[in-house]
Amino acid sequence: MRNQQDLDTRQKMILETVVRQYISSGVPVGSKAVADQWPEALSPATIRNCMAELEDQGFLRHPHVSAGRVPTDRAYRFYVDRVLGSTRLSPETEAYIKQNLASEELDPERLMSRVSHVLAEVSHNVGLVLGPALEEKLLEHVKFVKLPDHRILALIVSKPDLVENRIIRLDEEVSQRELDRTADYLNAEFRGWSLGTIRLEIFKRMEEMKQLFDELLSNVAKLLMWGALAEESPGLLFVEGTAKFLDVADFENVQQIKRLLETFEEKAKLVKILSACLDNRRPGVRILIGKENPTLEMHECALIMAPYRYRDRAVGALGVVGPMRMEYDRAITTVNYVAHLCSKLLSGN
Fold first, then answer.
1. Fold annotation for 4-83
2. What dihedral do alpha carbons 196, 198, 200, 203 form, nearest 10°?
3. What is the layout of strands, in order, in the sheet containing 301-310?
4. H/E element holding 46?
5. How far apart are CA 327 and CA 23, in angstroms?
6. Strand, coil or helix: what is 221?
7. 180, 279, 300, 308: which has the fewest C-beta neighbours closer than 10 Å?
């Protein structure tokens, strides 16, 4: 199969026309429909031959016995690469998004829930938001409270979230005085650090201070190892608009929709995909189309996602999922705009 870079100008224009018309109508596109949109005087027969070549090259297919053709995931990828960043939302849509998100009363968790709803409403697809993972949160304050049966309550105040409560069980007794001293050390040394980085730094200091290993550092290490800041737990996943798939004609059968909805219920696969957005080496919107999705159940879907930030640090991701026949230009622009706005709101700008 040829790559999209190998297509000539006529093939590219015809392929873009087919994709646009199919996204708009959902009906297989024939050569006459393309000719009606063609700026030059080309016959339907010439266009039909070109479309046959595109089918041989894996960009178009016949869904059934029909004169028309529909795009494959390779065609959608070609189209997305051409339209990416070429449109912007209307002033009315931007105002709607700001009005629904820019509320001083919203705490971070409610903001994430609201963002997933707005993404679903504006893009007409399923809205996804992955909240900040524990590793990515920045420490503001920590407090340890002694409980019965060797249990410790860890209260972790972080940015951009508010409070995490974790119960830790130790093998030995630790006094409240020792816990207070440990919390004071963490608050004084590591305020503003990510929780994952704190853990690495503590074990580095332990290694460097083998000969001077004191009780304080020992207590810090115990609490870290037993769960105060140790788990690489993913953030909460907010999903809004899954019922929209019940109204989509693009999926071949009920079983396909059922498997897709089960994927949304399980959430772990979506968390893994969205977490890839947190790689700071690849900023911006990412798009997975058809078989580019690592999850088999989503091979008939498109996923558009982007990271959002707390100050200069990517802490979570958001996006939309829909059928491959989606309004890509609108969905891409929506995800990009909401990610930037969410970053501003979390960072206090």
1. Arc Repressor Mutant, subunit A (1.10.10)
2. -140
3. 237-240, 126-130, 313-323, 301-310, 286-289
4. helix 44-56
5. 7
6. helix
7. 279
The token duo for 301 is 């879907």
Q: For residue 334, which of 290, 287, 294 has the smallest C-alpha distance?
A: 287
pTM of the model: 0.76
Q: Give the pLDDT band of residue 95 (cuts 50, 70, 90).
A: very high
Q: Report pLDDT digits (tens) over 268-289.
A: 888 888 888 777 666 689 999 9
Q: Could you give the C-alpha distances from 160 to 112, 121, 146, 260, 344, in angstroms and in order?
A: 11, 25, 27, 31, 11
Q: What is the pLDDT of residues 222-268, one digit of tens each?
A: 666 545 555 555 677 888 988 776 666 666 666 777 777 777 777 78
Residue from 72, 59, 70 nearest 30 by CA: 70
Cα 120–chain centre separation: 13
Strand partners, 157: 141, 163
How remote is the C-alpha of 293 from its chain's centroid? 13
- Measured CA distances, 285 to 178, 260, 298, 317 (Å): 47, 23, 19, 10
pLDDT at 216: 63
* Domain range list for the chain: 4-83, 91-132+235-347, 135-225
Rg (CA), the chain: 26
Question: Which tokens sit at 209?
Answer: 């201070």
Element (H, E) at 73: helix 73-83
Residues 112, 198: Cα–Cα separation, whole Å: 26
pLDDT tens column, 76-88:
999 999 877 778 8
Which CATH number is 91-132+235-347 given? 3.30.450.40
The tokens of 139 are what?
A: 């420490």
- CB–CB of 261/242 below 8 Å? yes
Please write the tens of the pLDDT for every residue from 31-40: 888 888 776 7
Which range, of 213-222, 258-267, 314-323, averages the lowest pLDDT? Answer: 213-222
Q: Can you read off the two tokens belonging to residue 292?
A: 């580019």
CB atoms within 10 A of CB 187: 15
Q: What number of residues does the chain have?
A: 349
Domain 135-225 has CATH 3.30.390: yes
